[in-house]
Amino acid sequence: MALKGCYLLVKYLVFLMNLIFWLTGLLILVLSLWMLTDPTFYVRMAQDESNYYAGVYLLLSVGLLLFIVGFLGCCGAYRESRNTLTLFFCFLLIVLVAQISAVVWGYANLDQLESLIRSNVASTVRHEYGVISSRTFTFDSIQEGLRCCGANGPSDWAESTFNNKPEKDALGLAISSTPSSYNIPLSCCSATTEVCKTVTKVAYSMPISPSIYHDGCSEKLLETLRQYMNVFIGILATML
User: pTM (2 decimals)?
Assistant: First the structure.
């Protein structure tokens, strides 16, 4: 009787563990689909488009694999099917090897990844904001969501193409002049719209308003990336 009770306990513990796998896979699938369909997703700005989509599809594959592993494990534990459980453990081994490889690769290339993020954010601020509408929309979302401004701070906007549009006279000819001020996007401002319209026009000789976010978005994105990596490592440690 005691052995039967222990057997049932182990059976339902295995079922519960696989239910967690199944839910984790479902969560990763939803996250991957969100990253593919939401143009404002933060990490998109940190990478080239090709690298971004390659990473998302890889994440989608891992989520799908975990989803299948969890389903097979639940079915095998509940129905006590030896073949299903064997298939489950094979898939589980593949998932664990893939996750360990991903963590090792991430830490081995962390410096390169951080450098890539910094250079791409700086390039967006300097050359693409106000020129490419999708990048402009995404970076506005980043600045509002992460409460940051520019790549390293609000003064970055002084060197941006966002401010390097030459003024034109009545005939449409460009007028060459030395600007005395520069504009900061409204998404950098935490105050009301009316106040923001005033404080986002910054004179070179004046300090930047406290209503403007002073932290750079490069560091904020890196903090977000590190948090995601820590969560991922925590999930991996739990599975091991």
Answer: 0.61
